[in-house]
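DM from R.C. (forwarded with permission)

"hey, sorry to bug you on a friday — could you get me a structure for this? deadline for the figure draft is monday and I only need the backbone to look sensible"
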Amino acid sequence: MTLILNIETAEKLCSVALSKDGMVLVNKESTESRVHASMLTYYIEQILKVQRIKIEEIDAIAVSKGPGSYTGLRIGVSVAKGLCYGADKQMISLNTLQIACWGLMHHEKLKLPEIDVDAWFCPMIDARRMEVYRAFFDSGCEFKSEVVADIIHSDSYNDILNTRQVVFFGSGSEKCKEVLQHRNAIFVDSLFPKASYMAELSFEAFKRGFFENTAYFEPFYLKDFVATTPNKGFF
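My reply, with the result:
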């Protein structure tokens, strides 16, 4: 039996989930603004209390590493590090965009429209103005591109959209609907990464021994934006 405490604070949701062998036992989350610092440790305490376990009984701490909000990531990673140091536990980090993709494909299937089998999936995190953090994934939530920061314009991703459908979702996709008018661009509303989406991913990472060096680990901020030229590929 593997117990993992999952922490996700990269965006507007502050969420915590306790999972056993990849299955969520209990989770708590809030969509209120600026509550990450005040609610994260409270949620963790409540989850442990409800399950009647001590932090020493947890096998690992998993945290969403980014990209995302600078402040949110700092809070989540700082708490995760503190728990790992205090209880002498291993630390797992998961990419925030992959967490979102896993949530869409495995937990929010009802939100998916009819799509082609070779469609790609593009979670987007809102940054500022027309800027987003994004990556492309296949239907198995495997990376098909690197994680980058993009400035969105009318010709963005045409090299991909001309060959296949792409499902855009996440906080950054909302502002892109009016810009990305390609026939193969599909949008799914209201989906954010959350701790309950992390359970299967963190369990797989645990089994493979994909642990971080707690002392040196830093969030993946991806802060720099570089303007791109229309109609150019990005691979």
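R.C.: lifesaver. The first strand starts at residue 3 and ends at 8.
me: no worries. The radius of gyration is 18 Å.
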